[in-house]
Write a structure and sequence with these properties.
Length: 638
């Protein structure tokens, strides 16, 4: 009896497992498996005696390690067998797919007795695949050629069938049975198509001959011409709003369509009468078109002048359509009727009477619009169309109100174009003026003794003052940039850039000069203050200081301030001046609507005796700050 874990028992278990695997896959031979396992057993037994004995492993450990080696070997073996089986399945699937396609193509092409090389016994799947591939390519090429032949014949059949159906022969069922099917591309089917094509060609020839004989036997050229003339008369009568029956009856009574008892007269007199009638109607159409166009053009002018709503214009939409059509394209019934023209003429007459009563109002309205545009872009409007002058001219009858209105409209268009070209510079002017207002506010804020009091809203003014100081530092660069932009505009337009009648460059240069003078004045005030402080210090050292008997409030400035809710005063923005004792900054607004004066305020001097000892230091400083107050805006030092 074999011991569990012995080499022989282990070898038998390995052999049994391999045999089960070989039976499941049925790919490799049993002899190869047994040889592999006996080789494995021999190697393991030899290695076991040599290595494990040296290590001193126990029999249980030897069995465990032997089982692990056996399992790993079987896994490798199983994986290799599965890969081989998968490769075989893929080859078999490819061969089967191509053989199926070959069978389908052979059936479609009708080649049923072809002996395929695939029917021969081949050694392997790869050889089968190599033999079926060329055959498949050849059949595909045959299919494409056969389909081209079918498509060519089918297109000819469809063309001829369409020509036959144009002769009013039934053709709905002729092509339905000839639908091209890829499942049947045999020579028999191709022959059927060719036969049907020949049949249709014969039928086409027969129908053509039949139609030609009927045409020349039943209808004469004269009758066709009479019918054409009659149709043209019918069209013209419809456009002009005339009675067709009465018109053709004047030529010949047989031309009325209601007259079925009498055949149509095709004599030379009928031809001449129809030709004269057509020429007469065309002349009348031309006259009415011109009259309607003139009336509609007058309507457009009055509508634009009177600001007529779109609903009133839509009433004449049919008449308006004539303007964009040529004479031959005017075919709408009744569009040139007498009623349509009279309706448009009546509207023109009504609007003309209304225009006379509203002309002065329209002139004034357009003039106000012109003045508003000019005010927004700061240019001077044309004085020749001023409101007073326009009223006087209209009342006196010296000028046509329409011409005056057209003149104002032209001025409005010109002003709008100029506003568009001045937009960039005007935007920069607005930013500059806004910065100037912030500068003026900062000047007033700096002169407020209570600006650092901890009241409600004081922190808001402090933040605004910080932003204003940053903005003020950008003013010189803004002015220089504005001057360069203005000069470039003047160079491009070949004209001066005027702002409320004054050249903008001159305003900016004056502003720069005034600003420079103000800076010099501030610097001079600072130097004088230093000298004054030095003199006061020396006098105090010689004569001694004397306390002031009273407090002076002459530093406060009531103008340009408002209460902020906690007893303190907050300066309000202003533009006309920059502070007491300094030159006025001449902005465009100060040019256009300035109020003369520099808002200087006289400071009341102290009533103490006129000697250097009696004049208190506080009064002296107060008097001095009333002159150079704009420089005392820095926060007090602790």
């Amino acid at each position: 009896m074999l011991a569990i874990g012995s080499p022989l028992a282990t070898s038998l278990r390995s052999s049994s497992s391999c045999n089960v695997l070989l039976r499941e896959l049925q790919v490799l031979s049993l002899s190869l498996s047994l040889s592999l396992l006996w080789c494995f057993e021999f190697l393991v037994s030899w290695k076991e005696q040599q290595i494990w004995s040296d290590i001193g492993e126990s029999e249980a450990d030897k069995d465990r390690m032997l089982l692990e080696l056996e399992r790993e070997c079987l896994e490798v073996y199983r994986r290799k067998v599965e890969e081989a089986a998968n490769a075989k399945a893929r080859l078999h699937q490819s061969v089967a797919a191509k053989e199926a396609e070959v069978a389908t193509l052979m059936a479609a092409l009708g080649e049923l007795s072809i002996h395929s090389p695939t029917e021969k016994k081949v050694a392997s799947l790869k050889e089968k695949l190599a033999s079926v591939t060329p055959l498949l390519e050849d059949l595909r090429m045959k299919k494409e050629e056969r389909m081209k032949q079918f498509a060519d014949i089918t297109s000819q059949i469809e063309k001829i069938s369409g020509e036959i159906s144009g002769y009013n022969y039934p053709s709905d069922t002729m092509i339905s049975s000839l639908t091209l099917e890829e499942q049947d591309l045999s020579l028999r089917r191709l022959t059927e198509f060719q036969t049907h094509l020949q049949t249709l060609q014969k039928e086409k020839l027969f129908v053509s001959n039949l139609f030609r004989s009927l045409k020349f036997s039943l209808l004469s050229d004269r009758l066709h011409k009479v019918l054409e003339y009659t149709n043209e008369v019918h069209l013209l009568c419809g456009v002009l709003g005339l009675d067709f029956s009465q018109t053709v009856s004047d030529v010949h009574p047989s031309l009325q369509r209601a007259n079925q008892e009498q055949s149509t007269n095709i004599s030379n007199g009928t031809f001449e009468g129809l030709e004269k009638t057509i020429n007469k109607l065309k002349t009348e159409r031309k006259i009415r078109i011109q009259k309607l166009r003139d009336t509609v053009s007058a309507l457009f002018e009055l509508w634009n002048l009177m600001d007529t709503p779109q609903a009133d214009k839509n009433v004449f939409s049919r008449a308006i359509s004539v303007l964009r059509l040529s004479e031959a394209e005017v075919t709408e019934p009744g569009v040139l009727s007498i009623e349509m023209i009279e309706q448009a003429s009546a509207e023109v007459e009504r609007l003309t009477k209304l225009k006379a009563s509203r002309m002065k109002e329209l002139v004034m309205k357009r003039r106000l619009e012109l003045e508003e545009i000019c005010r927004m872009i700061h240019i001077e409007p044309d004085a020749s169309t001023a409101a007073e002058k326009s009223n006087a001219l209209i009342d006196s009858g010296l000028v046509d109100p329409s011409e005056l209105l057209a003149n104002i409209e032209a001025q409005i268009t010109k002003a709008k174009d100029e506003a568009l070209s001045r937009k960039e510079i005007m935007d920069r002017i607005d930013r500059w003026l806004s910065a100037c207002e912030e500068e003026n506010w900062l000047e007033d804020y700096n002169q407020d003794n209570n600006r650092y009091n901890a009241g409600r809203g004081a922190h808001i003014n402090l933040k605004r003052a910080e932003k204003a100081r940053i903005t003020v530092t950008k003013i010189p660069a803004m002015v220089d940039n504005l001057i360069s932009r203005t000069l470039a505009w003047e160079e491009e337009k070949k004209m001066l850039f005027l702002y409320d009648g004054v050249r903008l460059v001159s305003i900016l240069e004056d502003y720069k000069l005034t600003r420079k003078q103000r800076e010099e004045e501030k610097r001079r005030c600072r130097d004088q203050k230093k000298i004054q402080d030095l003199l006061l210090t020396e006098r105090e050292a010689i004569y001694g200081s004397k306390p002031s008997p009273r407090k002076t409030n002459s530093f406060r400035k009531p103008n340009g301030y408002r209460a902020n809710g906690n007893g303190s005063m907050t300066p309000t923005p202003r533009r006309s001046s920059v502070g007491g004792g300094t030159p006025e900054l001449l902005t465009p607004r100060s040019y256009s609507g300035r109020q003369n004066g520099y808002f200087k305020e006289m400071r009341r001097l102290s009533t103490a005796p006129l000697n250097f000892v009696a004049i208190s230091k506080e009064d002296t400083v107060s008097t001095y700050t009333s002159v150079c107050g704009s420089e005392l805006g820095s926060p007090p030092h602790s």
